Amino acid sequence: MSVDSASPKALLHAAYRMLAAPEGEADPQRAVEMVRAACAQGSTEAWRYNATFAALGIGQPQSVETAFASLGRAAALGDEAAAAQLKILAPSGNFDAAAWFAPSPTIQYCDSPRLYTVEGFLGKAACDWFIRAARPRLEPVRIKTPDGGPVIHPTRNNSGAGFSPLARDLVVQMTRLRMAAALGLPVACQEDTNVLHYGPGQEYKRHYDFITPGEEHGFADELRLVGQRVVTLLVYLNDDYEGGETEFPRLNWRYKGKAGDALIFWNLSAAGEREPFSLHGGLPVISGEKWLLSQWVRQRPTPLR
User: pTM of the full predicted structure?
Assistant: First the structure.
């Protein structure tokens, strides 16, 4: 494709395909070239793409400054979503990277599994942004099974919405980077970021986030590619509901964070062994709506899509 004659839509589509190509076929540098060609044509979507690429270091050195400059360009061209994201991330006009990436004060509750809470991990404006972004896209949550594709399963009856690792949303990307910094694990190892919604009576019954021994055969290809789920990070996006605590029955412990608080638990030990006491569930909501940001992290980088 000639970058000189293609439309911004065609350029961005081609760039996405180059990044989502099978392992060994992706071409991040060429993708960046196409995105920048679309930026030169005044595409605000391209500038938001460029912000994501710069924030994550895709096809170029990672640069938060370049990411915010790109988002600012999109906002200056009239992109309302870009302007709203800037207001959330840099309300004073300047993004405070030192504060955003400062080590999070944690409280540890258990050694096996390693279990922590973090007060105020995300601010209210960011929490509200995730809720607004997810609400119109909610659909019943499906579970991957070892003998087939994702299915609606009696284990859970809530809804949710996912955000791709390539989401053109700097609130999403900066949150993913903040989580990576807090966990000390590469952002590239994160799965899709999910916002989960629970109404009255909805729950996620007791389960493990790691792939159990009985499931290994069905998930063999996945395990070879990205490995196990090492750790889970949950952010409570609101707190105006009753019930809905996160329960660890083998620890006799429950937790319900305030809006913006995070819960971190490691599904694997430091030695890489499954943690049997990480069994957990989301108890039924009694009244109101529960909104939760959920992030799983793998042992190895996950494919871009």
Answer: 0.96
